[in-house]
Amino acid sequence: MSIEQTRLASMLWGFVTSGLMIFFLFSFLVYIQSRQKTFLFYAFYNILLAISLIYNSPYIPFSLISDFRNGAYFPLSWFIQIVYNTFLFFFYFEFLELKKYFPRYARILSRFLLFLSGGSLLLVVFSIYFREISLYRNYFVYGFLPLISILVLTALYVTSRIPNRLKYFIITGVIVYQVFAYIALYKTMTLASGVSPIVYFYIGIIIESTIFMLGLGYKVKLLYLEKILAQEKIIEEQQANQKLRENHRKELESQLEEKIAELKEALRKNEAEKLHSLTLSFESEISLLKLDALRSQMNPHFIFNALNSIKAYLIDNNKEKAVYYLNKFAKLIRKILESSRTDSVSLEEELETIELYLNIENIRFNNTINFLVNSSDKVNLNTTKLPGLILQPFIENALWHGLMLKEGEKYITIDVVSNNGITCLTITDNGIGRAKAKEKSDKKSFKKESLGIQFAQERLNFFNRKYNTAYSFSISDLYDENAVAIGTRVVFNFLMN
Prior knowledge:
By secondary structure, this protein is an alpha+beta fold. The chain has helices at residues 3-34, 37-56, 63-70, 75-96, 98-101, 103-130, 133-160, 166-190, 197-271, 276-292, 300-315, 319-340, 347-361, 392-403, 434-442, 452-467, and strands at residues 345-346, 369-375, 385-386, 410-419, 422-429, 472-479, 485-494.
């Protein structure tokens, strides 16, 4: 090789090596910021390729490197090539999101490459230790090179089937690199005169790296656009949800106004004079309920159903029961409104509210629900504070999911005891159990998601943070000796930190 050719090859070597170092630093810094594995694998590929060029370069005057690579450690040169080719394949996988389009192929090839790298590492250690350089050379030339060529061809075929534009960067870069690499190999084997074969190899690396960097820039652009589109979608969904909530609120107000009108008409027809004052008072309570319905944490359907039940007594001319339950309903609404204006109530007040709620709901069960509250003398119900109406969703679930479909005796029991200084409240029912209730719910054509328990947990979490408490609850199913569901149990532990 002439002096001019040597000088050209030396300049290209320095240019390529420096460029690979710059690409490594750039890719690694981008990975630190973005945590995208694409940049990490590409950074490792560049630094290992640069190390390979330095290791095999005839232009480095240091005798230490020369002595190191020309002795028994020469197989390291081939091993480095195996490793950087492995990282190049992993770069392909992440860059093209191969796991998304061809998960099985990506999984099999990833495991094979890891196995190949591990086996190559063991073989290079063996070759260096026993000074079997020819063994590793034969493995590299007759084993690895044909195998990696086959893998490249199959990878190109799979890449061509990926439905995105990123594939063109990989296909173009790989083909250009392979063409120049084979030109360099051909000229080396034929000892052809002219430009040094290594020059073609360097040119292939330069073009390939440039194409890959352009591809990475394009991928960053796509990721940015994807992020912008995702944010816009979130904003649109939030706006749509807000509109749905507003429409639902208006619908509830409209339905509530209709029920109020129906109740007024029923009261006027049955006992206009005697119930006039009570109606005015009740209308006042309903007006407050209308303003705070969403804050009350009570299912709006309960309000409508309760009014319908009371209206039925009026229609049947059962005035005493109508007035009795109307008074209880008014008292319940008043307690609900009071609890909605404060973030805590005493356990005694909560139990009174629940008892009123059950008395109203029991109308629809023809008063077949047996409800009992057992409180230990050791528990001071006035000193235990908790979020208002926190027990209501659990009582509602027990009624409408556990007891509604049960035949025979039905009961709900609340037990309050003190256990090692911790106030413990247990709600027990003898319903059909959660599994069977879910099974029946799944068969319904119209399914409504219940969020009462979730809201209760969120309110309890907020209460714990604000008052430094450790309140918690757990739900379990009850079974008899034949593993047949015989009810549900909810246990509240009111623990102070």
